[in-house]
Amino acid sequence: MKTLNDFNFKDKKALIRVDFNVPLNDNFEVTDATRIISAKPTIIKILEDGGSCVLMSHLGRPKGVQDEFSLKHIIPKIEDILGVEVKFASNCVGEEAETKAAALKPGEILLLENLRFHEEETKGDEAFAQQLSNLGDIYVNDAFGTAHRAHASTTIVAQFFPNAKCFGYLLAKEIESIKKVLEDGQKPVLAVLGGAKVSSKITVIENILDKVDHLIIGGGMTFTFIKALGGTIGDSICEDDKMELALDILKQAEAKGVKVHLPVDVIAADSFSNDANTKVCDVRQIPEGWQGLDAGPESLQIFDKVVNESKTILWNGPLGVFEMESFAKGTIALGDSIAKSTKNGAFSLVGGGDSVAAVKQFGFEDKVSYVSTGGGAMLESLEGKTLPGIAAILD
Ligand SMILES: Nc1ncnc2c1ncn2[C@@H]1O[C@H](COP(=O)(O)OP(=O)(O)OP(=O)(O)O)[C@@H](O)[C@H]1O
Ligand SMILES: O=C(O)[C@H](O)COP(=O)(O)O
């Protein structure tokens, strides 16, 4: 696996695919700069080698050219984080980009306008990828968050750099973290899967059953399992058409020697709202008119014990409706347990859009071993898929 350290960038132009698809507020200010901060080590290494950087990224899902999706909005944030002036090309291909890239001196950075202003990007157009390839000598992919897309800048462009392509530090670290959990994990290995629906996690569950010793199932997914097992779940979220599958997953887990831990109690609410009336219920006896929105205290104690005994922990998906304060306790308690276990030497990886949001919101970011920068990309990795952006570098 070629990484940055296999190259010296002196007097070279690196064409770097970053994932600067960051959230902006109404004033076009970056509200979470994690993805920019995470790309910094790669950019700095290249500049310190005496090279220059051409940065390319998408932002959002624009339909043609739309000013609100312009990457110019994030220039001040990038400059702030890198401490280097950032030049800008208002079109990612064409004369302006080529002239500005050609004029770059060692130590300088050029940011290209949003790649998705051209539909050729998402279509994986080869001619467009070739135009991009003209802007650099070495192609560096550091965009883990977009590595599951076979787009021009993430995948197709790599073919124009047969001997000059590599992973950036961030992408390499993401690959290493997933490997540390799914392949080389110190036992016992635990996966905690939460979130809303079984349907969005089926392939992940099936793939990780071969890799883990313990599986905690929480969040909205719980109720499809409980109902399938004969419990009464009141108005809790449930996918009736996935009940058979849930039973099959439990059977597969048993056959593979994986211990599955479902909640035994829940915080039930009489409506889906923060100020609903709540009570602790046996998970198998939730009354009509009530719905389980968080894990209950006994479940949290059981989960804490399992987490504490684990040496490798993967966490994907919150344990409850953490966006509402009344139902965030389970997710916070789980974060606490994982933080404690990490402090005691376990390796913990948090991935997935909402679990990462929860970890940041509740201040666990620095208390776990690694927080992934990818949502969909992480999920597809956990499903056991080879991501096209990664395969294109390995080719
Ligand atoms: N008991 C519950 N009832 C209803 N919704 C729930 C329940 N528990 C958790 N959720 C909801 O599940 C959502 C998160 O599910 P999701 O599967 O998207 O998580 P994720 O895996 O972290 O994110 P992603 O799918 O983006 O990777 C949250 O919005 C949360 O409110
Ligand atoms: O935020 C993400 O998950 C990545 O930047 C990919 O974005 P996309 O889902 O629009 O391809």
Automatic annotation (TrEMBL):
Binding site for ATP: 201, 292, 323, 352-355
Residues noted as binding substrate in the record, renumbered to the chain: 19-21, 35, 58-61, 116, 149
Chemical reaction(s) catalysed: (2R)-3-phosphoglycerate + ATP = (2R)-3-phospho-glyceroyl phosphate + ADP
Entry keyword Cytoplasm: yes
Xref: Gene3D superfamilies: Phosphoglycerate kinase, N-terminal domain (3.40.50.1260)
Subcellular location(s) of the protein: Cytoplasm
Domain of life: Bacteria
Keyword Transport among record annotations: no
Pathway: Carbohydrate degradation; glycolysis; pyruvate from D-glyceraldehyde 3-phosphate: step 2/5
Single GO MF descriptor: phosphoglycerate kinase activity
Chief place where the protein resides: cytoplasm
HAMAP family: Phosphoglyc_kinase
PANTHER family in UniProt: PHOSPHOGLYCERATE KINASE, PHOSPHOGLYCERATE KINASE 1, CHLOROPLASTIC-RELATED
Family: Belongs to the phosphoglycerate kinase family.
Stated name of the protein: Phosphoglycerate kinase
Species of origin: Winogradskyella aquimaris
Biological classification of the source: Bacteria, Pseudomonadati, Bacteroidota, Flavobacteriia, Flavobacteriales
Gene symbol of the encoding locus: pgk
